[in-house]
């Protein structure tokens, strides 16, 4: 199968790319490298022991898309390209609507013209907003509270309408919960450009001595220990969900959404404890005020994906912390190009 993956050099994209290559797909990666680099792509080639085409470019570039679709003729698109910082989206909403929403519309237009009828879209659990009930199932009302989240729900609606307009079109939106972890080879993992905002990269910075203390946002939430609880999911589980989605689209039309989570929430202090155990490090932290817009608990109901995609998360929190830490140890050498193998 010929697969176009947008955002294929990114954190989730590069892990998904390995899965695609492992099952024999012919792959073309389109990525503007705005939050990634070709280092990850070279590492993927080593892990997969296979080659693929890479084009640096933007999904808003119609001419480029036409060239790709005319020549490569993808049978399916995995659309992962997009900006993903909540804070940035509040400061600069138009760049988020422009890149995420307009880029998706452009992509769907070119897909339609070239009779490419299948797309898997990388959405986010952030589309749910404040919980009316937990765990979130896919019927939970959507009410994102920031521009980033709104771009995700807008794109879902656009793709849904695209499917309604042509009975041959089929699409899946995967609503990711909190991706963490790295490839078990330690050859690729998360490598955020600039200052990270998400919890796991910050824990890693403290463990590595790059940061003195973690700021824990709030200690009076209604959770087991008062700190926020999330459904962390190993990036390799997330990657395999894309393969399951492709399998589903081979036999089903229309638009479907699926949660991609474990169905289990753990608190910040619980995550710190596991991280300390598997890494043998000490994570210093201090409690600070709650972060505006944060939820006490976000946890998925993963049953729909289990039933229809036949997909289930298999990695534990220990796996997530261990793989994150091993990648952190190996990362500096890989970035500097000193090694291309695991420690
Ligand atoms: C955040 C985004 C969400 C996005 C997701 C992607 C916000 C408000 N939400 O979700 O839209 O889809 O990342 O992975 O930014 N925490 C600390 N100290 C820190 C950082 C985080 O205590 O320095 C806490 C948070 O309060 C939260 C937990 O750690 O309880 C996880 O935070 P984070 O990794 O930012 O993920 P989300 O808030 O779930």
Overview of this protein structure:
This protein is α/β, with parallel strands linked by helices and 343 residues long. Helix content is 42%, strand content 17%. The strands form four sheets. It has a seven-stranded parallel beta sheet, sandwiched between helices. Strand 1, helix 1 and strand 2 form a beta-alpha-beta unit. The protein is globular. It starts with a strand and ends in an 8-residue tail after the last helix. The model has no long low-confidence stretch (mean pLDDT 96). The site of uridine-diphosphate-N-acetylglucosamine has 20 residues, from helix 6, helix 7 and strand 8.
| Overall pLDDT | 96
Query: Can you list the strand order of the major beta sheet?
Result: 3-2-1-4-5-6-11
Task: Give the N-terminus to C-terminus distance in angstroms.
Answer: 34 Å
Largest sheet: 7 strands, parallel
Strand content: 15-25%
Helical/strand content category:
alpha/beta
Radius of gyration: 19 Å
The H-and-E topology, N to C, reads as: EHEHEHEHHEHEEHEEEHEEHEEHH
Overall geometry comes to globular
Total count of strands: 14
Binned, the helix content reads 40-55%
The hetero compounds bound to this protein are: uridine-diphosphate-N-acetylglucosamine
As residue ranges, the low-confidence spans are: none
